[in-house]
Amino acid sequence: MTGDIFVFICVLIINAIIVLGYILWNILCLRRENQKVSGSIVEKRRGFPIRAAVMLLCPVAGPLFFLFAQLWYKVFFSKPVDLEDVVFSKERVRTFIHAEEERERNMVPLEEAIEITDTSELRKLMMNVVRGDIHKSLASIALALNSADTETAHYAASVLQDALNDFRINVQKQRQIVLDGGDDAGVCSELLIEYMNQVLEQRVFNDMEQKTYVEMLDEICDIFYERDREHMTSSQFEAVTLRLLEVEDYDNCRKWCDRAEYHFPNTLATYTCQLKLYFNSGQKKRFFEVIDELKKSAVVVDSETLELLRVFR
């Protein structure tokens, strides 16, 4: 046996002894920790079999690597963290965000913006409108279709078409979830009612399509009422009632007025919906009966209803 082979075998044996000692030391430490903390093993010791395998397969280099890594950690990263400047508090902090003054100065109602003759200013105002939540501004965007500036009208048409297409797709998807009646059907019904009402109240569809989606809204509200009526709110009753009233579906509108009267008898929205239904359907006797009931009730009325009471007192 040559001297080089003998030295190599000695290095392998010494390395194997080091690895074996490393494994035994970790096993003893794990047992001690298991006795101190029942059922718990320190995370940093879980990887010792992998480290032992690396040390065995990479004689000298493997042990030296882990040795220097441990020394490096002890010297530079083992110091305790200074938390003097860190405050753990549940106290609410109010953050003030400065307004975009330049943008706010350029914000005006789109109805007024359409009358502007300067096309560059009109286009800038149009851009400011569509930067926000356009689902709340569809009616205003629809007005821009009649603008004398063809580019503004074309841009408004594109934005409006994209928004309405998204509405159609989303309604079909969410409606199917409601019809399937899964675990999310209740939450989906509530969100869909709010979403549909927000768009339908702006009257951006043609009469036929508006009536179709109002019928869908009535259908979804019916399903929600049958499955989970105790979670329906007065505003949801009011929303479906007003949308049905707009398409002159008086029968279904009366159905929701009766339901609202049963579940929310002393609510202003219930009275106002009844008044609008009886006024539009020509039921004068019932109209004045509801007015008298509202006067005798303890319901606080808003300015619009108060003006109505003054006119028909």
Low-confidence stretches at least 5 residues in length (pLDDT < 50)? 37-43
Biggest sheet layout: none
Average pLDDT: 79
| Computed Rg | 36 Å
Give the beta-strand count: 0
For this entry, what is the oligomeric state of its chains? single chain
Structural class based on helices, strands and sheet pairing: mainly alpha
Count of helical segments?
15
- One letter per element, helices H and strands E, the order comes to HHHHHHHHHHHHHHH
Strand content: under 5%
The percentage helix is 55-70%
**Span of the ends, CA to CA:** 122 Å
Global geometry? elongated
Tell me what the structure shows:
Helix content is 70%, strand content 0%. The radius of gyration is 36 Å and the shape is elongated. With 313 residues, it is mainly α. Residues 37-43 have low confidence and may be disordered. The protein contains 15 helices and no strands. Helix 11 runs antiparallel to helix 12 and helix 13 runs antiparallel to helix 14 (284-296). It has helices spanning 3-36, 48-57, 61-76, 101-105, 110-113, 119-131, 138-143, 150-180, 185-200, 207-228, 234-246, 250-263, 268-280, 284-296, 303-311.
